[in-house]
Fold these 4 entries.
Entry 1:
Amino acid sequence: MTSDYKKIISILGHEIPLGTSKEINFNIAKLHTATKIEVPVIIERSKKPGPTILFTAGLHGDEINGVDIVRQLISRKINKPKRGTIICIPILNVFGFLNGSRNFPDGRDLNRSFPGSENGSLASRVAHRLMNELIPEVDLVIDFHTGGASRFNAAQIRIVNNQPQLDELAKVFAAPFVLYSKHIVKSFRNACFQLGKPVLLYEGGKSSFVNDNISKVGVEGVKRILSHFEMLNSQVKANPPKLETVFVEKSKWIRAKKSGMFKAKVAINTKVKVDDILGQITDPYGKVHHTVKSTIEGYIINVNEASLVYQGDALFHVTKILKS
């Protein structure tokens, strides 16, 4: 990242010098009752110049595990840097968070609305302001997500391939897994990449739930990143990872061959072999007893925790080809 760090940065129309602690209200819109909806943006700048790192969560309103991680960064004062700047936005989609919904009130997915438009939909306008009034000042983004619906993700970092800087940062973060995934058109990650802003996307857990272990892995990863950039304040300790990170080049979904009542028999992070039993599908009448087996060797990185599944539903996400 650049060493030409600014003494004054401009965030959402506010000029913020070094040595400043500031909370800015990102004005999103008003409810039908004329009540303002504002997203707090918490900014901590050391007196000593350094990188600017942005931590975001709640891009999808029902993915609250990420919100818990950014909350911990603030409450435990991890966001007070020894040098440089740390910006925290715990909830980007406050509408969805309030309603337990993935999307914005206009039905749009904020993470498919970037880089946005000044005169577009509500989601598009929020995306536009974020990309034009905040992201230009940022050197690195770490964005926290969870698995969708009932699918529980193992703690993982997602990056694009052939980006040595991202490989290095992913190793520093040291989540159990790193998945190479292509950018999705109109996603936040893609929009940042187009501006030359590196993004680590953290996935873990499932929507509408907070898992303590997923939060812990996320917080510990952040501390290692901050330590890497010499930004971690002296009151906080970065712990070395317990396990070596597995880089996943390819993976495969194992899907339900029958509809019925589903029970998983293996846990996240388990290494399985071909023909290992992963779960069982039964019917309410005691006639169907279908065993779900692994068709490949690898690690379980996602488990569907739904009790009822239909034929074709994704049940397990298993790594396929690994590299050290």
Entry 2:
Amino acid sequence: MRGKTRRMAVLSLLSAIGFLLMFIEIQLPMFPMFLKLGISEIPALVGATLFGPLAGVIVELIKNILHGILYSQDSMGVGELSNFIAGSTFVVVSVWFMKLMRESKLGYWVGTITGTIVMAAVMGIANYFIFIPAYGVLLNKSVPEIVAWSQLANSSITSLWALILYAVLPFNLIKGVIEAIITYPIYQRLRPIIKTVSQ
């Protein structure tokens, strides 16, 4: 019971940090305005590497619920659902491969790179069929209008498929790689401390 309480406390702290990191976003050149680079998956990845994939999903869920309730009630949860699916996919796939390779240094990089690729593929499909049409409804715009708006950032975006190919896919690849690079030294430094708390 004591170990479970401590683990819940650590996951709550990581969820709070993830929520705060959702407000730190950078606009990248050549990408539409609605794609902003953030690093809020880092606490979930740290939690998942320490306590298992489900812990990372819990962190993702809590941070997005908090963000939806406290910040973006008007978005109908579309942005939060997108962030949750992307983050959970990245975390679960990454950690599954890490565990498969016995949490070695090579396993970390194989895991996070694989997680990044899978996340990009999943979000490409999800944006094509779900999220971009949903954003269109929220913004009272058609999908062609969103494509035209996105073309202002990148002239290669001439269709919805081009938007996925030239924006959504590379954006998620960049995001995953950056978060993996940032997380590695943080995870290595905090792991002994957090593991003692979780026992």
Entry 3:
Amino acid sequence: MVKLFIVRSLVFAILWMGYLYEHFQNTNEFSLLLFISACTIGTYFFLAIVKEPLILYILIDCLILLEEWLYPLPKNMYVLLLFLYIYLEAIFQLNTRKFRLFTVATFLCSVAITMLFQDKEVEWLIALGIFSIISITLNEYVYEREEQREMYEQLLGEYRRLKRLNYEMDRSARLEERTRIARDIHDSVGHKLTALLMQLEMLSINEPKKEYDELKKLVHDSLEETRHAVKALKTEENEGISSVLQLIRKLESENHIMVHFTTKQGVLSVKLSNQQNIVLYRVIQEALTNAMRHAQSREVFVTLGRSAIGDLEFSVKNRVFEPKLFQLGFGLTNMKERVKEVGGTLRIFQTDQEFVVQGTIPVKGNSR
């Protein structure tokens, strides 16, 4: 956006310099001419910082016409070029209703100037009227395409949300099925192995034999393996950093976002509880979703590290081209509450260049 504004300003400055050069070649009165020129240029630079530029566009056209009225030149093509340039900018900057008001105000101002000039040709008004009609048609087309683009972005966002929801539902269904299988194994195989081990204990007491000891060891090992299998089935498929990697891989594969993922020394060996793993995953997921919705850039920087006291640190940053005031919505507020529940901290702030989600999660066993 900054580069575009520089290019626009440069084009306007070149056209205005040519406009002034033509006047300086044909008149000796410069004071009022320079004053009006300064007002026009100053007004143009305010276009980039005001929310409603309609009045400024009308004012710029009126100043150009006023200058031409005070210092008329028979053949000054820069007037037409300036008018054309201001119209082109207004086409892309004003909505349909405001652009129509702009064209009407400019045309009425031109009519007033033409009535004051005896040497002005009526063809100027006819040409301006035709050009205004063409400009209105082009403006309607531009904003129709803009509305279509916004509708497409909304539909795309809804599609992504539904796709993520479908993914979460499939994942929940898999976890429920794994939990059911683990419960069945625990209730059937585990209990039967335990009963078998007790019977072998009783047999070995009544009739001590070496074979019974070997069978007890075999049953005991089988019972331990069954317990490990049940525990593995009850645990989520991907936890903590592994689930974050899967999330990033999924988003990049769908070309939604480009993530620069950095892990610092020691972070891969951090042991988190199941609740902390879920919080880490959800916070980074929400931060990436927030970046996809609101950031102008598709680049996001995710960093995981360890603090000086061994806690897990994380940050999610995305570039900001036009800093705007933001409020904590439901998603960001929910992120803070999740991190607070596990004893962590979360900071959400914005600089001139970045939007940052930054926080820590305490690691069990670290001294405070």
Entry 4:
Amino acid sequence: MHLSPGLRKGSVPAVLAALLLTGGPAEAAAKATTSTKATSTKATTTTKAAAATTTLAGRLAAAQSAKQINYYPSAAGWTKMWTAFDAATIDADLAKAQNMGATSVRAMVFPSVFGYPAPKAEYTAKLAQFVALAAGHGLTVKLTLFDWWGDYSDITGSSAWASAILTPYRNDPRIISIDLQNELDPGNAAALAWAKRLVPAVRAAAPAIPVTVSVNSLANLTKIKAALPLDYYDFHLYGYSERALSTIKQAKAAVGSSPLVIGETGTSTLTVTEGEQAAFLARVFQAAAAAGVGSVAPWTLYDFAAGAIPDSAVAKIPAEYHYGLYRTDGTAKPAAAAVKAAWTGTAYPASLLDAGFENTAVQTPWRSFMPELGVPVRTQAVARSGRWSVSLSNTGRTAAGIPAYRVSPITPVIPGQKWHAEVWARGNAATGTTQIALSWFDANDKWLGGNSSATLAAGTTGWTKLTVDQAAPAGAASLQVHLKSGANTGAVWFDDVAIVTQ
């Protein structure tokens, strides 16, 4: 993922066997296409983007619209992808990515594994296999060079290694772009000086392939833009998706008129629910579209199995194992459907925001607010529609607020835009304050204010619609919708939420 330097076995398809017997990717691909009719069809299949990427301008345009997935096999992350290379598993995984709507895949290359400064034939052949497998599923490849690398003093060796890796692909339309290094730190003077020398070397080796350097913060993006004239800029977006539009707009401002992509984004289901992961990615896709950024690459296709990440700083972070769109057993998380909807231009699943609370607790994006004063509970005891509702009972209240169940919408917030939210509520011996409310925050997550509906009548009531309307205030970057009930010695139930812009 985004931590950088310092840190199924099965039969091999005929196309791959041909690669093992030849000296280079182009020759291997040609021989492989004669093996069988089925293999020929697969090996020569390319995306429309790949067909257009025969020039720098064509590849650059394709990179800006690529439906790209970051990828390692579930059981073999980082360097293990290459040291335990499993062509059959990779082939099946890339088929899954293709089925989601992906048109491109990112692969990271490691000098420490491939051999340095002269790459080993064993590993360049594996890279050729990977590129051929990707093309067989209509996927172009973005190559990230120099991962887990920190020898910035060796310009000569670095240039020779990059040239040896890239020269076989200099005219290969299957390679869409080159990322010199994952999340290079421009605050490291040696790293920046190295990058200034290596970018021209990479361009010399592959002049028709656009070059970028990925970064993981707005500050680093600004520094990289000032220091390095790149073909496009690659920003990794993590943190809070609710403010994604504001963040992406800041990233665009940092690079000016230069092209920008979101080369990594996602969140770990060790720290949020699977439902929130799906909502996170949907928000980023929606925000990128609103900001005019055409390529968003989720991190990553699969969760990682225990032991899949080599000994490194990454391996010691439990959350790093749970960013996948798919679990280690191959089953899809809700995020897979959200990404497929974004890539295929279809509607997001109706369950994405769990407006009727029918999702399981693991698959809902709703979260408790001030649970110390009262915890929302999913229940089948009462429901307006479906089988489930959410209840708050015996709640407290303080000067800081009252307990609630909250969610942020998928649609990005634009100041001045009108919003409407509604929910059906009913009470049993209810007291205190029960409402639906809008709560606004700026780009720094500072609360800007909000608005609340009328209060549900006290006592025992039937289903009552509560509504709230408000225009996003100046400076608003995100919105939370709260179903709240405070100082309530009885109980209330909520069901059938709607959140729309007007």
